[in-house]
Amino acid sequence: MKTPRTVLVALLAAAALTACAGPDDEPAGSGPTGAAPTTSQPDPVPSASPSRPDPTWKGGPSTPPGVGGTTLSGTIRAGVEPNCLLLDDHLLVGGPRDLLKAGATVEVTGRPEPGMMTTCQQGTPFVVESARRG
User: Fold this and answer.
1) Where is the signal peptide (predicted)?
2) How far apart are the C-alpha atoms of 66 and 64, rounded to whole Å?
3) At 125, phi and psi to the nearest 5?
4) Is there a domain that residue 115 lies in?
5) What residues form DSSP beta bridges with 75?
């Protein structure tokens, strides 16, 4: 009688785990190639590579900021961590790094992203969509 009870417990555990899977979840090995599916995480700091400028940048803002967009202006200061730039207590994420440097007076357009994780320990992340000298 011990074997049927063990089998019953195993089946109930399997059913409980299967019920936790969402509609988009696939079991491991069920992908098109039979390999376990992979998940890719988005880059937490979009276009924030300080060593190369953003190739899509076309200059200053030509239109007002879109919905949720904000324009900031002032003098950029260096943060406490390397490659961290602050403007009015906003951490500048992305944008043309050849223009965005400590000591530069600029006007930037973008949107605040308070939930974004960064390696900088200060400022509210602000994703720069365009920038120009101020």
Assistant:
1) 1-21
2) 6
3) -55, 135
4) yes
5) 105
